[in-house]
Design brief:
By secondary structure, this protein is of the alpha/beta class. It folds into 2 domains: 6-54, no CATH class; 64-223, Zincin-like (2-Layer Sandwich), CATH 3.30.2010.10. Helix content is 39%, strand content 25%. The protein has 7 helices and 10 strands. The strands form 3 sheets. A 4-stranded mixed beta sheet has the order 4-5-7-6.
Amino acid sequence: MAVPAYQLRYSARRRTLQLQIKAGQLWVAAPVGLSVRQIEAFIQQKSAWVEQHLSAPLPQVPDWLGLGELPYLGRRLQLKVVIDVLNAWTLEGDTLWLQLSSRNKAVNQRRWMQQLVQQFYASETELWFNTQAPGLAAAMGLRYQAIQSGDFKRKWGSCNSKGELQFNWRLMMAPPWICTYLLVHELAHLQHMNHSPDFWQLVAAHNADAKKARLWLRQNQHWMQLI
């Protein structure tokens, strides 16, 4: 087969080539210095796999706002909307109330709903990870500086050299054990700023679900969206 169109990303940390299909498009992650000729030869070698996955139907993304419910740490919240004097959200038990200002234009109400739900998830992300991090960091013998939520499109978390951690707010749509894995993963980067064997050994030592969690994320990331 001819080499299909693909998106290429180089990484100084990467040692091997990796192919991924995301939203019906081929993505290639390659070590710095690898030539396009070598990359496309590798794609040709994997042509059967590429063709099979590119032709597979795209998974359906639920319209959570339209369904009136939201996944939240392994359970479902009911979404209730009321017209009020301001735009705000309130969590009461298993119900997330969205207050929409009567001054909003009707055509903008769904956008406001999406914005409020994202604010809710971002707030809960910071609360959850800041609550869980001290104990895990102590068990791993590591120290971090700060934890915040982030709005990332292609990663679940990050860790920088200052010891600052960020976690994708969409993780609140996953079960808690997935969040625990991501927390261990980013904490491990405080000691190993790479994905070396030593890094994965540290992760595995503190999270028995690491491999299962990575598989879960690959299989379920398509529905961890609001639209």
